[in-house]
């Protein structure tokens, strides 16, 4: 079954084509990594899939349903979650309250100062379960801004998981991390359920080849290659444009 289908997606900014007819399809449970140099259109593609940017042309289907015109919150309710290239957190909230807010939003609850006790208990239990499952229980009381950058990147992933996504978009989850922090984030991604479909932008080739079932390479708004590690390494155009040639 196809989880995500992008059909001839285009996005123009004035006379610049950030996306120029991109088409790709991910099967349920697939882990696809997007590679490409800066300005290739990878994040623009994520914006179009998640709904934060309306495409100029083309179509986005999610489990067979056309979501091209849906708002980002509607897509999230269907089970589409994402992280961002630049960490996007509430720095003054505690880790626990951040997860609590994500859980409440994922379940469609409006912000309430005094929610019913039963709902408050259920939300707190779910937040606690998420924190415990991903090893954050010990730092739950800490304020987000006191976390290391690596911890903040991991927390952002936990917040995305609050949606219980069927499709998870990860925008450079290891960018700016030390080797040890990168290893922890990679381990988190490897632990995700295999029925969760993942599309990930990654700059670290070792991480990309470790996590990906298949790899897609973009250049100048176009998809120029798709395949497994061996096919991508053997592709002369990819070597010239992205990997570099000797």
Write up this protein.
With about 250 residues, the protein is α/β, with parallel strands linked by helices. The protein is globular and about 55 Å long. The mean pLDDT is about 90. A 6-stranded mixed beta sheet has the order 6-7-8-3-9-10, with helices on both faces. The protein has a 4-stranded antiparallel beta sheet with strand order 2-1-4-5, with helices on one face. About 35% of the residues are buried. It contains 9 helices and 10 strands. It is about 35% helix and about 25% strand.
Quick take:
The chain has 246 residues and is α/β, with parallel strands linked by helices. Helices cover 37% and strands 25% of the residues.
Write the layout of secondary structure elements.
Layout: E1 2-13, E2 16-27, E3 31-35, H1 42-50, E4 57-62, E5 65-66, H2 72-78, E6 80-82, H3 95-106, H4 117-133, H5 149-161, E7 167-171, H6 179-191, E8 197-201, H7 205-211, E9 214-219, E10 222-227, H8 229-234, H9 236-243
Parallel strand pairs: 3-8, 3-9, 6-7, 7-8
Antiparallel strand pairs: 1-2, 1-4, 4-5, 9-10
Key terms for this structure?
246 residues, alpha/beta, 6-stranded mixed β-sheet, 4-stranded antiparallel β-sheet, 9 helices, 10 strands
Largest sheet: 6 strands, mixed
How much helicity do the residues have?
25-40%
Q: How many strand units?
A: 10
Strand portion? 25-35%
Individual helix count: 9
Which geometry do the CA atoms define?
globular
**Parts with pLDDT < 50 across at least 5 consecutive residues:** none
Question: What's the order of the H and E elements?
Answer: EEEHEEHEHHHEHEHEEHH
Mean pLDDT: 90
Cα-based radius of gyration, to the nearest Å: 19 Å
Determine the N-to-C terminus distance: 41 Å
Question: Within the largest sheet, what's the order of strands?
Answer: 6-7-8-3-9-10
Structural class: alpha/beta
């Amino acid at each position: 079954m196809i989880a995500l289908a992008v059909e001839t997606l285009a996005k123009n900014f004035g006379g610049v084509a950030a996306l120029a007819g991109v088409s790709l399809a991910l099967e349920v449970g697939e882990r696809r990594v997007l590679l490409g140099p800066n300005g290739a259109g990878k994040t623009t593609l994520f914006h179009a899939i998640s709904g934060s940017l309306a495409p100029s042309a083309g179509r986005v289907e999610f489990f067979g349903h056309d979501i091209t015109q849906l708002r980002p919150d509607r897509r999230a309710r269907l089970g589409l979650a994402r992280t961002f290239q630049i960490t996007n957190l509430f720095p003054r909230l505690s880790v626990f309250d951040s997860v609590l807010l994500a859980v409440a939003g994922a379940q469609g609850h409006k912000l309430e100062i005094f929610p019913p006790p039963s709902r408050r208990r259920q939300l707190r239990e779910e937040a606690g379960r998420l924190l415990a499952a991903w090893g954050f229980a010990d730092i739950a009381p800490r304020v987000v801004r006191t976390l290391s950058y690596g911890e903040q990147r991991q927390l952002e992933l936990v917040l995305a998981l609050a949606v219980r996504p069927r499709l998870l978009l990860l925008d450079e989850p290891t960018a700016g991390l030390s080797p040890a922090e990168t290893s922890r984030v990679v381990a988190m991604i490897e632990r995700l359920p295999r029925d969760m479909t993942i599309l990930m932008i990654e700059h670290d080739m070792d991480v990309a080849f470790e996590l990906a079932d298949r790899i897609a390479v973009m250049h100048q708004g176009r998809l120029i290659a798709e395949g497994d590690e061996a096919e991508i390494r053997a592709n002369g155009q990819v070597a010239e444009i992205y990997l570099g040639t000797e």
